[in-house]
UniProtKB/TrEMBL annotation:
Alphabetical list of InterPro entries matching this protein: ARM-type_fold, IF2/IF5, Transl_init_fac_IF2/IF5_dom, Transl_init_fac_IF2/IF5_N, Transl_init_fac_IF2/IF5_Zn-bd, W2_domain
Name recorded for this polypeptide: Translation initiation factor
Pfam family, one: W2
Record-linked SUPFAM superfamilies: ARM repeat, Translation initiation factor 2 beta, aIF2beta, N-terminal domain, Zinc-binding domain of translation initiation factor 2 beta
Organism (species): Coprinopsis marcescibilis
Lineage summary: Eukaryota, Fungi, Dikarya, Basidiomycota, Agaricomycotina
GO biological process annotation, one example: formation of cytoplasmic translation initiation complex
Source organism superkingdom: Eukaryota
Alphabetized SMART domains for the sequence: eIF2B_5, eIF5C
Length: 414
């Protein structure tokens, strides 16, 4: 069974907050003077934070005044003494605040960068979400450990998997698209780019920049200094203001006061009272229209997460009319698949095995098209969930993809 996941910022009580991590677990081993606390899923937690697992483990030791042990080969991270899991989770929140979240926008999409000033060294957080570089309190004992064990640098010309390998290279959270790695020829779906419309435009503008510029973690060449980032944003805003204001990214589904979050919470509240699924479909559509997002593809992602539950296979026929009304493009279909991905991958992990039935239900109601499902099933993306979850969901979808392929073959034979 997949481990429970929680918001990286546990102070954000929003189930639609996209940055999530596994809930830290602990195991007490030994007795007497040899008693110790093992963190079995430290690598998974650190991967979600894009930090080496040694960093939060060492942080625990600094805060608790305890010795720590790292056995990276066997994936064992140990804090001497017996420590309650709630205490370590509280300390993890402090670590995230001090060494992960951008001090400006509170987004976890950050890299740790070591700057040298003569003989002195400084650690900063380089935020890929807002472009700000914010300092870290160098008085904390962990900074000494980080300076001696710096994050591994990304080689020039190669993209970074932001969800990160266990060594914690780089920063950024699950939603940022990464590069193919490891198994086979998996790639990130070109249609599943970052939600930030302005970032897409910046990428396009950056294509013509000098190849001698420094490499950015999004995979394009550009000067990543705060001044350069702000300059590019200002220049693009001047020419794209009208486009951005009318784009599909008005408001973020990460903002608890955005129309997307308001719609999601409204659906969750009203669903308990709804006796007639058809009438509820109409009510949801009207509410989305009132919020001005009835045509936005991100509204589909939110609705699919809020309206479905553990009985999604049985619920699809009940709410099919709503999605038939609102899913009007390939982008809407991908947004629906993204919402389903979050639902079964993060909120109801036991439902991953049922993903073929879910896809079949949407397919039979002509909500999802064969080409879109096939493309989605063969392209891993980190837009909606972390890379590992994305792989797991797509792996589970293989029986349905195979059925689609065989059905096409039969049609060709006929």
């Amino acid at each position: 069974m997949a481990s429970k996941t929680v918001n990286i910022r546990r102070d954000v009580d929003d189930k639609f907050y996209r940055y999530r991590m596994p809930l830290l677990t602990t195991k007490i081993e030994g007795k007497g003077n040899g008693i110790k606390t093992v963190v079995p899923n430290m690598s998974d937690v650190a991967r979600a934070l894009s930090r080496p697992p040694t960093y939060p483990t060492k942080f625990f030791g600094c805060e608790l005044g305890a010795q720590t042990t790292f056995d990276e080969k066997n994936d064992r991270y140990i804090v001497n003494g017996a420590h309650h899991p709630d205490r370590l989770r509280e300390l993890l929140d402090v670590f995230i605040e001090k060494f992960v979240l951008c001090k400006s926008c509170k987004n976890p999409e950050t890299d740790l960068v070591i700057l040298k000033h003569g003989r002195n060294e400084e650690i900063i957080r380089d935020c890929k979400a807002c472009g700000e570089r914010t300092d870290i309190d160098m008085r904390h004992k962990l900074t000494t450990f980080i300076l001696k064990n710096p994050p591994v640098k990304v080689k020039k010309g190669k993209k970074r998997d932001v969800a990160g390998a266990a060594d914690g290279v780089g920063g950024g959270g699950p939603p940022v698209p990464g590069s193919p790695e490891g198994e086979g020829d998996e790639d990130v779906d070109p249609g599943n780019e970052s939600d930030d419309f302005l970032t897409k435009k910046i990428k396009a503008e950056a294509a013509g920049l000098s190849s001698t510029a420094t490499i950015d973690n999004e995979g394009w060449s550009a000067d990543t200094s705060p001044e350069a980032v702000k300059e590019r944003v200002a220049a693009l805003e001047a020419g794209l203001a009208n486009t951005v204001l009318g784009g599909d990214d008005d408001g973020s589904d990460d903002d608890v006061n955005s129309p997307y979050s308001l719609l999601g919470k409204w659906i969750e509240e009203k669903k308990e009272e709804a006796d007639d699924p058809k009438a509820f479909c109409v009510a949801v559509y009207k509410r989305a229209t009132e919020l001005g997002i009835d045509k936005k593809h991100k509204a589909i992602t939110v609705i699919s997460q809020a309206i479905f539950g553990a009985e999604i296979v049985k619920e699809v026929p009940l709410y099919a009319a709503l999605f038939q009304k609102m899913v009007t493009s390939e982008k809407h279909q991908k947004a629906l698949l993204g919402g389903v991905e979050r639902l079964v991958g993060l909120m109801y992990p036991d439902l991953v095995a049922d993903i073929p039935k879910v896809l079949m239900a949407f397919y039979q109601f002509d909500i999802l098209e064969e080409e879109v499902i096939t493309q989605w099933g063969t392209h891993v993306s980190k837009k909606y969930v972390d890379r590992d979850t994305s792989k797991r969901v797509r792996k589970a979808s293989e029986p349905f993809l195979k059925w689609l392929e065989e059905a096409d073959d039969d049609d060709d034979d006929e």
